[in-house]
Prior knowledge:
The protein is an alpha/beta fold. It contains 14 helices and eleven strands. A hairpin with a 2-residue loop joins strand 10 (426-430) and strand 11.
Amino acid sequence: MTSDLPALLRDVAQLAAEFRAKSAETPHAPRRSYAEMRAAFALPLPERGAPARQVIAELAELVEGGLANMVGPRFFGWVIGATEPAGMAADWLAAAWGQNTGNAHATPASSACEETAARWLLELLALPLESSVGFVTGATIANFTCLAAARGEVLRRAGWDVEADGLFGAPPVHVVLGEEAHSTVFSGLRYLGLGAKRVVTVPVDEQGRMQRGAFARAIAHLDGPIIAIAQAGHINSGAFDPFEEIAEAAHAKNAWLHVDGAFGLWARACPELTHLGHGLELADSWGVDGHKWLQTPHDSGYAIVRDAEAHRRAMVIAASYLPEGKERHPADYAPELSRRARGFPTWAMIRALGREGIADMVRRHCAQARRMAERLGAERDVEIMNDVVLNQVAVRLGTDVDGAEADALTDLAIARVQREGVCFVGGANWRGRRIIRISVIGANTTDEDIDRSAEAILSAWRAERRDRAR
Ligand SMILES: *Cc1c(COP(=O)(O)O)cnc(C)c1O
């Protein structure tokens, strides 16, 4: 089709390199709005095709001004990794090689690469080496996949085969989780027919952790199949649930314990931080992201299950046209059959950073989060709401102002920070307050970036207060 493939790839390389070269000084928020982008893209369906090089040139022109600088060094919005070069390049090759990575015999190289990447992940995260790993799109689907394995196994123990017979007539499954579980966990429960509201919630402390002893009390009176869900890395505070006591209470009830560790699980890759997740290795399954702390391209997450057979029973795809065998088939551990070779970018990022590089990066981000908290917390009317144990900082502005007004001013300050573009931070609601939530997780952030960003946030905040006083 394309006669000039090398030229096309050179064009793409050029565009990508230019974008990356500028990312340190490009404003972090998009300059143009969604409405403007819709208008730019609102083209009629093309009747005739065009050469690929022209298509790519058009695309690069259309996105102008509408890309967020999520790979920039001062992007602290949500919890988003920086798509580092080794992973990005491996992902390009994954596309170029066009490996539909479902079956080990059909795509031996990408399947074997994934298998090794899986083992490396288990070693890095210090999780049981017998666990199976499904390569999925992110923690949302990782949690879903693990919870599917959990549902199958707790019902199997109750004499029910949910994979064959579904949930109709099945013994009820209790789901127990912390009051501040991540919203995507509830999505997983919905997809699985377990219901987002049909849950037992465990009260949390001021860091969003399950209160000590509360989990054991919550499940004490429950009978029958139980799935418990704990969290490593609260989205606002970075806090960890008290896993050791949760695991003990869960297993005393023969419950399945799942851990949502989208970014927090990576604390285990850093020796000084392993104490945070102490005891979480006792769980039965773990959901974690690649595209957050490991800096792989989107989309990348891992569903890790101690009982590989339960994992496989929940996800196996039996198709007569696929070669079988005893090997690990990638599709048997993820919801999709056809998918990209996600093992390549994961393998490449672990190979590029090494165990030491990953530990150094996680350690540095946590130190930078503390640095950010010190800089911001030094301001008279600013409060850091969390213990900065990891990479997340929850900031409350206007401690001397009435609540509703402080919330409104906080939103104005966030908008100003984004507009001015030195850095990017987002907002969230937590403990009845509007907060700035800062996630230090991009690979290229330096201490100087932290200082510059803290200054930008404080100056935006002071400007909003001045405007209000007028
Ligand atoms: C980001 C996140 C998720 C969802 O992960 P995706 O990669 O967006 O699917 C789930 N739980 C926690 C704690 C998260 O931080």
